[in-house]
Predict the structure.
Amino acid sequence: MQYQDLKDLYDLPLFTLLGKARETHEAHWPAAEIQLCTLLSIKTGGCSEDCSYCAQSSRYNSGVAPERLMEKCQIVERAQAAKDNGSTRFCMGAAWRGVREGTKRFEQVLDIVQEVSELGMEVCVTLGELGPSEAAKLKEAGVTAYNHNIDTSPEHYPNIVTTHTFQDRLNTIRHAQDAGMSVCCGGILGLGEDTEDRLKMLEVISEFNPQPESVPINSLMPMPGTPLAEEKKVDVFELVRIIAIARIAIPKAKVRLSAGRTNLSEEAQTLCFLAGANSIFYGDKLLTAKNPAVEKDLALIDKLGMTPQAPNRTLEAPEKDDAKPAEPALCSPDG
């Protein structure tokens, strides 16, 4: 969807926008279901990148101590616990720039993925940059979806990260899609961007071919010691508008209410679900930030008459639209 179309939606009265988003949601997601995902940081801290929002960067004094890759038995135990608590997708994140074929840590990750996939859950990983061969091996090992957010607009991205480019992000997404994996790709609100940046971020994501299978919408949780530690809290109604526009622009994707959910009341979360969010991160931890308790989430889901979505281990990546270019919308060569 082009920027002007997104801007026209943004400028609608809120209730009109919500009506359009709800109509789109019902057309593609008629069941009152919500996807429950658990995210585990399998390798925390010590990352060489300088993402301004991230407490795991080694460049900032954030208080997050670097840790080694977790043992496989520990990860599988956590995955089983997540499944027992109702999660249908298990997401594993590692604080690395990326992974490379032939390295010990990549072989360890492949082994972990294979065992976790045998639990019958959807398996998602976020490991940084991928090349074509790494993407193919992850798909073969059992990865259902690869998470790689673009964070913000191409124009604002250099203000947030300097150790890699926006184009690097797009390249990884293309490699994951070419390998047959679904892509989980969204962004973060509250990085000092303006409304134009937020809409341009959604423009890029909506122009992926194929569109992402899921779109996480994160609100910055300012981390002490990072350059964005003093950023202001994202306005709830702005969050709702962006979720509604994401639902309209990427209708077949699961829109995930992600980081920052701990700052939302039950009423605010309900408004996000009304706008089209149908997936949440659920459990004890969201990487290095707190996440609402399992019991509280289940109680809210029950109040709203919603049910957890069943896992789909046979989930296939969305098909390309032959009428559109194969590549995502690209930024300028200088990133």
User: Anything to note?
Assistant: The mean pLDDT is 88.
